[in-house]
Amino acid sequence: MTRIALFGAGGKMGMRLSTNLAKTDFVVSHVEVSAAGQQRVKEAYGVDCVAPEMAIADADAVILAVPDTHIGRVAAEIVPKLRPGTIVVILDAAAPYAGHLPERADITYFITHPCHPPIYNDEVTPEAKADHFGGIAAKQAIVCALMQGPREHYAMGEAIARAIYAPVMRSHEVTVAQMAMLEPGLSETVAASLMTIMREAMDECVRRSGVSHDCARDFLLGHMNILGAVIFEERVGVFSDACNKAIQFGIPVLMKDDWKRVFDWDEITESIRRIT
After folding, report:
1. Which of 188, 65, 90 is nearest to 143 (CA)?
2. Is pLDDT at 276 greater than 90 in this prediction?
3. What Rg do the C-alpha atoms of the chain give, in angstroms?
4. Before 52, cis peptide (omega within 30)?
5. Whole-angstrom Cα distance, residue 211 to residue 219?
6. Closest residue by Cα to residue 74 from 100, 97, 109
7. Farthest CA pair distance, the chain
8. Which of 138, 189, 191 is nearest to 165 (CA)?
9. What is the C-alpha separation between 258 and 8, in angstroms, rounded?
10. I want to staple 63 with a disulfide (CB 3.0 to 4.6 A). Which of 16, 89, 93, 215 is the partner?
11. Yes or no: domain 3-174 corresponds to CATH 3.30.450.20
12. How confident is the model at residue 33 (pLDDT cuts 50, 70, 90)?
């Protein structure tokens, strides 16, 4: 049996993980500091949360399902008390990349993060179609990084990651730095920012033209679907000459010439510093 201590068990992410871990053979000790969180765990799973010292006493792995801004403090409290060889699972690369984890050579740091269910998928059930975040019914990919520790610990870390993010269709092994470039770099600094601009553009179209919100939304989301399918090679296709011309003149208006500097390592580091 693999024993897991889940810190932050009563939080939003902790409850998601607890639900999936309850479907496995892992033996889980739930740790939660807030009374409300402890009550949520009790009501959902019929178990009591335990003190941190009790949870880590015989834990093979510790999952820190706590906010990025708390990772350093929580890790500093518990890592010195862990048994040698314990696997510490972190759910985001930000705090590890920023150097917020305590130095201890005889434990393993394993970082994992969900990719979330893709826009283009083969889901057919209503539950899976509605699972935009993942971890319930829709298949998703995940990324995993063995930050430190023996190579054989990667398999256990990945098994835990596949369990907490299930159902998982693909698992990608990356480095912590690569994961940091994926998020916040690619997914938040770029994708989330551009999608926010697209929403503002839709609202501006409604304001200036008088077309209804529903009409503009249908038009935009439908075009996002087919344009994205071609751009990301989900299907074979080409844009019209008019569309290509609009792209040619649109990008310089919308984007600064040096916008790709968001992927410079100093920019990634500064972004993570702000987050953590």
Report:
1. 90
2. no
3. 22
4. no
5. 11
6. 100
7. 66
8. 138
9. 40
10. 89
11. no
12. very high
Helix (H, G, I), strand (E, B) or coil at 112: strand
Structure tokens at 130: 């509605």
Of the options 3.10.25.10, 1.10.10.10, 3.40.50.150, 1.10.3640.10, the CATH number for the domain spanning 181-275: 1.10.3640.10
Q: What is the 3-state secondary structure (H, E, C) of 38-74?
A: HHHHHHHHCCCCCCHHHHHCCCCEEEECCCHHHHHHH
pLDDT tens digits for 175-206? 999 999 999 999 999 999 999 999 999 999 99
| Residue 261, CA distances (Å) to 137, 194, 256 in order | 37, 15, 10
Backbone angles phi, psi at 42, to 5 degrees: -60, -45
Task: Output the DSSP codes for 148-168.
Answer: ES-TTHHHHHHHHHHHHT-SE
Amino acid at 220: L
Where does the chain show beta strands of DSSP type E? 3-7, 27-31, 61-64, 87-90, 108-114, 140-148, 168-173
CA distances from 161 to 88, 98, 140, 154, 233 (A): 12, 22, 12, 10, 28
